[in-house]
Protein 1
Amino acid sequence: MSGVNEIRSSFIDYFVKNGHEAVASSPLVPRNDPTLMFTNAGMVQFKNVFTGVEKRPYSRAVTAQKCVRAGGKHNDLDNVGYTARHHTFFEMLGNFSFGDYFKDRAIELAWNLITKEWDLPKDRLLATVYYDDDVAYDLWKKVAGLPDSRIIRIPTSDNFWAMGDTGPCGPCSEIFFDHGDHIPGGPPGSPDEDGDRFIEIWNLVFMQYEQLPGERLNLPRPSIDTGMGLERISALLQGTHDNYETDLMRAIIAEVQELTNVPSNGPQKASHRVIADHLRSSVFLVADGVLPSNEGRGYVLRRIMRRAMRHAQLLGAREPLMHRLVPVLVREMGRAYPEIVRAEALATETLLLEETRFRRTLERGLSLLEEESAGLVSGARFPGEVAFKLYDTYGFPLDLTEDALRGRGIEVEREAFDAAMERQKAEARANWSGSGEAATDTVWFGVREREGATEFLGYDTETAEGAVRALVQEGKEVSELPAGARGFVVLNQTPFYGESGGQVGDSGLVSGEGVKACVLNTQKKLGDVFVHDVEVTEGTLKIGTPLALEVDHARRSAVRANHSATHLLHEALRRVLGDHVAQKGSLVAPDRLRFDFSHPKPLTADELAQVEDIANTYVLRNEPVETRLMAVDDAVASGARALFGEKYGDEVRVVSMGTDSGNGAPFSVELCGGTHVKRTGDIGIVTVLADSGVAAGVRRLEALTATAARRHLNAASTALQTTAGTLKVSTAEVEARVAALVEERRKLERDLAEARKKLAMGGGGESGPAVIEVNGTRYLRIAISGADPKDLKAIVDEGKTKIGSGVVAVANTAADGKGALVVGVTADLAGKFDAQKLVRIGVEVLGGKGGGGRPDMAQGGGPDGAKADAALAAIESALGA
């Protein structure tokens, strides 16, 4: 059989030929399920279609869905690499019917594909059905001709699927392939069903019921949801029992072998497989907008990346490896998933940065491990809690801890480690809040179902008329909002923009006969329901009330300028920094804009200046900003920039601005539902304020436009003029004059420090004779006040040089009354005196605790600087003891 890419295509083509709509994979970050960390099944994007909340223009669909299982309930991470079929990333092939065909057609379509299109031998196939699903049982006999011996009734929940405690549910029917009696294992439902002989290749779910509290009802329009793992069916069709022996996985593993020079079929086979699998998860997650971090989805990605990087080290890789594998993955899967082609530069940069950091983590972890295990001897057990701390806090893998200790005959307490891990997983499950609509937003589902979408008029006007369709207060629908009340209003149509895409919602006024209300904010719920947050100032707002609607013009104009400037800055950043720049978040407000983007390091002053100059070049050209409605696929194909993880409908708005002087094409082209200026000149000016880091690999640019930028520049100019007047120079000379003053101050500080040092060395300051002998040891004691703490060690070093052999102690009393103490011991006395012990004696007199450093130089301090002389005397006594 052909390769994985051809198998994927043949599945989709088969169902398209049979009347199904080919639907693109949804992102790995779920759009519509707040409980799910990652998309882990094909039906996830259709959840609201099955429940009736969402309508699609088709009743049959086919998909190849990218999935990740590496966190929460569905977690295959620890098994990956050590079995033939576990993955963190996989593709789920599926066909779906939304109230169209049911069991008979689903079974017929499945059977014809695997036996006629793919030529699987019928005598090696068997099916399971739910124990009381006689209809499915009879259909397998009728459609497939399976004998009773190869149709197995299963009484457990394995063959009954439910979306949750309530909602659509129904029996399943699974198709199994028999690999032959030379492989251990029994058929499904038998005591040894977990063997590898009988492998499930396809699961057909018959959604025919709706589960309600206490009862189960028949659905009026039963549906079909199927799932087939592409990796598993590809292995079968390519004549192997191992998913990692398919052509796609072999290509990645071959590249790992080439780069490490370690055979992929030898003792370290598992490491090759871990790297191949985790590379796919890492690149696809980055392409869908997830970046490594210490929480949520980013933390799971970091664990996946670092597990692969650990195995790269086990293969002997001395330099970062993972980023060098991205091209082979893009070559193998980029045609099916063009998002990884667009994200190739970002994924490469992210993997390189993460692996560089991880190598430092490993070095630090080994040092900490050595410290924690210093007192253990062969046969001892290393505390599991400490191993977990190394793993959780420092990212130090357990297997590395075990490897490092095994050579010393020390074993890790796995049970304690596992217990700590379980506690963390329980906390993570309890704390996971996810994304999407919150539970308190359920009221909007009812409003959406009854009233439909809100018609948005705001692209063309800032005033309109509308009628109240729903009123909501404290999460519940109400019939009216009296004067003084605050609540949410849904209208049949509105010019008010609802907060989305980083752009803040509009505010303004609504009024009708005897009623007025301020619109404080506007939000979008469920994608197309515009919700106006209002405070009624006069009269009573009721269902059906006709209203005049007026957006705050000045505020909207400022927002428009900032949104268009954001597009110009986005493209300018790509031109200056490279194609790896991708939007990671934004805020478009009336008074400022904020743009988060992928980039591994701070921008230089020159790069910031270039970005600002490019943006302002297009502002000054005052070219038209064009908006077109296009099919989403056509828009992306034409070069419009789509944001990773963003949900787009079948038709999208494409906003283009500026003309590229090189080729005449638009400078910036993005899919965007926001409001924009008519011409780039309406932006006025773009002023970049700052570049800062917000997360690993993510930078933030802050900027102003129009009136806000003008005010900022005026304030800066005024400050410059004032400073020039104070310094009695021209504005052009301010920078040089300030630099000279700063250097002059530094010189004065150096001179002052030198003077204090000379004063201290000149005669011991307030403590009398500079050098005394204590039991044959020379002791130089110096008490000073007001010195810079940074200078104390230099004074001690000079004192050690002066006395040649002995102990030097310097006590400083600061302006706030606190005391600082530094003690030094010359090299010849290192075995006799310990500076750390001596400084602790003096620090105790100052009212402090401890003190740290080295045996030859240590420091500490305390709140009572008035006892500096007493502290020096205490050290003298210790020398004489």
Protein 2
Amino acid sequence: MPVATVTTSAAGSLALLKDDDRDVRVYALEYLLSIVPQFWAEISEELPYIESLADPQVSELPAEARPLAALLCSKVFFYLGERDEAVEFALRASAAFEKEPYGEFKETIIAGCVDRAIADTNAGNKVDSRLEEIVDGVIRQGSSDGAKLAIGLALSLRRLNLIEAIYLQSTAPSEASSSKAVERKSADGILHDEGLLRYILAETIGGAGGSDAWPDSFRRDLLALLLKLFQRTTPSDYNSITQIWVQLGDAAAAGAGIVDLMNKGGDRGRLEAYQIAFDVTDMAPQSFLETLRTKVAESGWGPDGTSGTEEERTNLEEILNGSRIAELSINFLKKHNQTDMSILKVTKDSLEDRYSIYHSAITFTNAYAHCGTTSDRFLRENLDWLGRASNWAKFSATAALGLIHRGSYINGVRVVRPYLPGGAAPSKFSEGGALFALGLIYTGRKEGAEAELRKGLSDVNDPIVQHGAALGLGVSALATGDEDIYDELKAILFQDNATSSEAAGYAMGLVMLGQPSERVLDELIAYAGETQHEKIVRGVAIGTALIMYGKRTAADSVIDKFTKSNDAILRYGGMFVYALAYVGTGDNKVIKQLLHFAVSDVNDDVRRAAVIALGFVLFRNHTQVPRIVQLLAESYNPHVRHGATLALGISCAGTGLEAAIDMLEPMTRDPVDFVRQGAYIALAMILIQQTEAQTPKVKEIRELFAKVVTDKHEDPMARFGASLAQGIIDAGGRNMTISLATRAGTPDMKAIVGMVLFVQFWYWFPLAHFLGLTFQPTTIIAVDDKLRIPKVDFVSWAKPSKFDYPSTAKPVVEKKKEKVNAAVLSTTAKQQARLKSKKAEQGEAMDTDDKPEASSSKTEAKDKESKPTEAPQAIVSNMSRITPQQLPYVTGPFDPSSVASASKSADAAVSTEALAPPKKGRYLPIRGVGDADAFQADKAAAGRARVGWSGKILLVSDTKPDAEGEYIELDATLWPRGVQEEPAAPAAPEPVAAPSAAAAAAAGLNWDGAIPAAFEYEFED
């Protein structure tokens, strides 16, 4: 019987490798490959010799056997833990490696090949053809197992051809929903998985992430490829296509797309064109919109064109110039204003207005709380308080009108007319504030305000007025790149006045936002090195950062100049160049640099700015921010801790992120006042529009704000922050949120700019008004093809309390003083005790006996009553509040008659029982909202995955256009038709005596009531 042999050593086979016969050497290699897992340590002693056998220049092995030697080297290096060498020899092994069965060795080598290919791609080196073969095989395998994995790898390798191939090999998943109203077709007859394209688009818009920062050329090529692939399917996904047009800055293509849809005629084409126009208006910069409007007008669809009907041309123009969305938003905000006036009253009564810091705090709180509502009720009811404003507090108080009336393009000039230069108010502070207010009203829309602002900039030779005019002109001409306005602002800058030139520096950055040119950068950087005014240097530094918005690696040269400067203010500006150039990218290299400056710079302001900048860079990855800034929040340096609070607030705004709240709560008890200030503001940003059902701590934190504001022993800086927090958390009448991104996921330029300038309030309080640019109305407004607002309902598949408005604060009731008992002598007490004991012995009830509780039976009865159960859903009327967190639960619209509800209020109807599945109504959305088959909250998220709409305005198709319909009427006083946006200046009015507070309150809340008198009061010192 033969005995099985057991190999106990590789020495024999290694000896055969040196045999004179080449066939024996080949046999030895094959055998060593089979035993290498057991004897790799012994084989490694002969590794140099085996490497020489794999060398193509050595002829000791036949050419076909050299890959075996390379494979043996690769396996030995694998077991030695030398992955790079193992990969190198595996590539030399070529065909021999491909024949290897899948296992730990092959998977490790493939992973190493992929990593090397990605590293070479990121470094700009040519990828080895052998690496490409292996990676292509991985991608082909991945596309069959999971297309997203293959797409991710192709993105990392920047292989556009592979991305296209993977998409064309995919097939669209079967739609479970039966709500598809339009049959879709593809150019090749196969419906492909457009979810892959949307995944790529989300990655492209959000940045490549980490150290894999894509060059601009690849990004543009990728977007162009996505555009081509999206257009293969009809009807196309215009929601995604619109985002691509904006990202590419291709206004001409967007205009051509809108014109093409309008020319096609019919409800579908017109509705799609209107929807694109609304979406573009929501996410594109002003320069893009101006070019788009020009292209549309050249095609005959402008106001004076001949295409279509006059109504269609007018509607399209009003959408593209932003007036229609502003009209709808301002009506929504006024109609649903839920501002708790008792909070403002308590804050005003608690903060002594004779101090400028407290007067400004109340001003900002009111401006935030009433942003966009046009409600000046608080001002009318507190004219005495308003009259005590002095100097820059008066400037801020007047500028607050700009936030209150934000977006009121028709009435904007009329609102601030009494305070403009030449009006009834002689104060330079109120005149400058009025010009700033005018710019805030017309944010991102210079038509209607430009003439007045340029007049205030040039005609009035006063630095205070010029300060307000410059800020107003900058914010109204946001991102226009207007050279004429830039030159006017430059003239103000070169006056070298600390007040006006600082504002000019900010304004120049606002006008040239994201549009750097060598001339502009050279002028600003050179002047920053010449002036002796720190305020001007700071204005120029932040202005330069604004110019580099979104430029990524193109901003590196400016960053290098600023961060290596000996001037701490320029290094401070360099941190914001990082923040704006790489906003939302999450770039690892940038994060590393910011962390370095946060802990190593010798200047506290620079360190604070570096930490704040982290919030901007990481706002798309907000869940990572608490972990990154955790140690910074515990720093010994209070400036670093303050920066950590704002970084959390900026990145996690509106999310209610529990980790961020848990980190900020202890910081509200920090021993340093401005750290507590930052914690209050950050908590308000995070908890805006959060309910107790979502975030239980929101009630406790609201009470904390009130406690700090009313505590007269608290530090002024902390009270200032708590006051601002009260306005932020209730912004826009509790109908606005804070977000640095649009609903489509694209970075919101206005919001980002507003947040950057808001954090400069550390140096200059009036800049706190810029926070209003970050506020966004939270609503869905369904409109038909005539831009009317039909009375339809949406279903929110969540309990009403989960997203309801917070309850009104209970008024503080003063405790009544208890009556003090008169002193009683001991002898009298003893005598009374003897009398009581005698009565007790006689069986009489004493007066001091406890009486039986009369209400005990009532209490038991109440306990027996069954408590009403809360409905599992809510019916939300058109043009009502729908928060971003609520949106995934929302479906519709449906006809009110098709929705079974027990009761209905002005804002929402709630049934005590589950709703029957609603049927399709008269109005069908042009883009899907939720899933009509999702009748439980747990299905809502799946329905949301197929949503093709991401804006505030939703176009709906009327299936019964000839039938009469019910529509929501808009407030004509807010947007009177036929009135010019900039009426001719009336004659200077006669000075008006200040009315009493009661008389002013009686005037009502409408804009056409008695305009508050100009600030012609006797001010207290």
Protein 3
Amino acid sequence: MKKQLFFGLLYLSILACTPGKSQDISTSIPLDPKVRHGRLENGFTYYIRNYQDSVSDKDQRIFFQLIGPGGRFEDDDQQGLAHLIEHMVIETKSSHFDDIFYDYYIKNLSDRGHWLMQTGPYKVYYQWAIPDTDPELFSQSLQRLRDFAQDKQILKNLQNDELVDKHGRGTVLQEFNNHDRKRSEKRYKLLNEPKGHSKADPNIYVDRHNQNIKTFELESLVRFYKDWYRPDKQALIIVGNVDVDEVEKQIKGLFSDLKMPDAPRDKSLQEFQQKMRIALPGKGKVVTLTDSTSNKTQIEIYYHHSTDKINGTPTTKEEYRAKLIERLYNDMMSQRMNSVTQQYNVTIQSPLLHYIHAFPGAYQVESALTRFNVSSVASIPEAFGLVMKSLEQIRRYGFTRVELQRAKDSILEEINKNMGPLPLVYQYQSHYLFDALAPGPEYEREMATRMIEEITLEEVHHFAHKLLDSPDRDVVFTVPEDIPHDSLPDDETISGWIREIKKTDIAPFQDRDIEGPKQLISDAELSKLSEDINYTQKEIKELGVTQLLLDNGLQIFLKPLSSKKNKEIQITGLSQQGASVFDGRDSLVANKAADIVMNSGAGSWNKFELARLNREKKIELKIKVNENTTSIRGSVASGDIEGILQQIYLYVTEPNKNELAFKDWFQKEQETLRQRKNFGNSFYDLVKSEIYGIKLDEPKSQVNLADIQLDRSLELYRKLFSDASNFTYVIAGDFEVEAIKPYLLRYLGHFPTKSNNISLKNIEKDINIEQPVRGVNKTFYSDEYKNNYAVSINYMGTYPPTEEAIFKLEILREILSANISARGKMEGLYWPLDVAARFNNNFFHFSVIEESKEHVVIEKTKSIVANELYELKEKGPDITVFRNVISKLKSKRENLFRNSNPSWWCDYIMEQNMNGWDLKANERELSILKSLTPEEIRDIARKCFTRDNLSIIELLPESEKIQ
């Protein structure tokens, strides 16, 4: 099922263990003393931990995870069936409920942001989270998991060919074809066939599970369920704000009746590991792959190592210390690789990544992986040489003490953050499966802090040298269909390049290559920026906001926030003057002006120098010119606000003119336009063209790059920032108004004030209002994207431009999205369907877009949308969905001003200011929610979803065209 990655100190791969210095390195580590760990008489295991996040500003949630048998328990005729049963379990109406899991989950949970089911070699798990305020929902969740563990109805469904085809074979094959095939092919070519299987056909490994899914007998499926869905192979983990004693009592009451088989089988973990272990050949190779959905040429360099570890979590202090060394290595490598691309017109397309890559644990192979893209085959030698020289530099010399200390500081900062409930869930999972460490946050924090301080530069260098000296070096080229494989370097060529690089005289790395400017603005310049600026101050007490109006006309709103967790400051600046205030080609040039400046830099600093400073100071800054607005958005750690204000000042008053940077931007823009050719972009562009009349070859969406000149783009950029009175700034976060006011006056108070002769009337005149076209029903055919299908279902029409009308349309979208998503899952679609909505210029636009490699998915999507809309218009919304959507929206508005997210407050205050400070809007929305009825939603749906408002665009392969 859908996979998500969770990163934390205990979830990175172990590659090697190096001798440690701690005297207690071999001391055993106890299980988290705050977790209740037990085992029922039938063998069922449980972990219960009360966890209350005292520093979180969000509503508390309770996490559930049920662990069951993974792929290692499969017999030869059961390949892939552990995964298929996972799909069947959650698609089954259990003995206790009338609906399937997806329908239940979407209808009953106000927060659908977390659910995850996954099958691997060692386990399957079913996981979700619920609010901690609903005891009935908690009891229902426990009962659901009890049914997932063992249920007669599930067993009955596993014997039903029709249901297995619909909810098992169908969705698993969708998942494989759309998600796993390329990854499996790459893994096969890198590692060769695992032991115990034929190597005659390279596609056997890629498709082995897939082929068995198509042909298995139901007896094999039933046998796996009966043999392995049993209590001694299962565990339940619950973490959240719970009464541990009460939950333990409920678990005993529900799970004690799980039955063991009369003659329980078992399978040796050690034998499975031995069977799956990959024996590395001790030499390198080149692998070439084709990606028909991409126009990018990707290069991956692997240095493989065998490992005795089958799982990424440590079981001893020695292994834990080795993991910290690995994490330091990853952090420093990330920054070192970043420095390789810190130059203009480099042939490597960012990002250049390097990290420890763990293949599935059963193979017991880990790799140091470097990944990057190049613009063309011709640029491969230069790009490959740059990367390999950097790797060779690290292999020879290791890292510097400054790099190590920065990495230690960064990791210690992460360690000292609140761990959260989800990492605890995964710690307990690894403890159950592998007897891994799960000491709890307090113990781990103290242990990690002590260990990391003791790790030496020599230890990390030893680790890096061992990694990058492996003879098992593979290079993988993944290219578009139009690039022949024989045009790529072969292994002999690659090996020759590497031999020459190893002979090259490479100087050690210098710390100055990763250090940012010590001072952005000189003392002489700072002396000219006086804080003696006239201003007026006003308090908006309802919101706890301070308003400043500076002498240059700039308006600033300040919202201090008190948060134990979020220690950052967010800044948003907005002008309602954008590219549309200019005529003709100037409008197109202005639209790209901010991108050009951001690629150049500000003041006397280029973008790379500023990027290094921003990493040190944790500053993020983005300037953008859109059609109707010019914006500045940024964030900075609490206490460093002067640094970001200095940068904003320089970008506004001294944008950098850099010919080399402009050439670099120009080449990247050309490449971006070329890569729009991939299937997804092409289909979205096609929909835009048919619905909004936006053509790719029209200036509105694709600038004629030849028309853009550096001098003119800078001139237009300066005009947009030439009058401070056009801008409003909102600053929200962890600060005190009086403490930051001097910085605001010194920097923002010196923004230019001269008129740029651009009026809002000109803006209104020049805005090209996009109105969608209704009644379009077209099917397009293309051989360019083989075996790709897509559909876009659109309903568009006019609505009264009132706050109430827009809000009710948003409620309609929430309800419709919940219904369609649930129905899609019940009909066997792997990826959940979603409903997008756009409301502007008195037009509404609801849309559902689906892409797939299977035509049946497109047909199902059309049928699901049509049926759900019919039900909604005839009967109104499902009452449970309606109540929960209303409840969620009510809760959000009732707790509106409790929100301590700086970004949210910046957006909210900016919107309120633009709307004339309508502080009663929230009260009116609450009033609408209290009085709204399902019948009203039904009536709105009847007006919106008419045949006249419908447009459908389809894109199919040429082979589907009827002659």
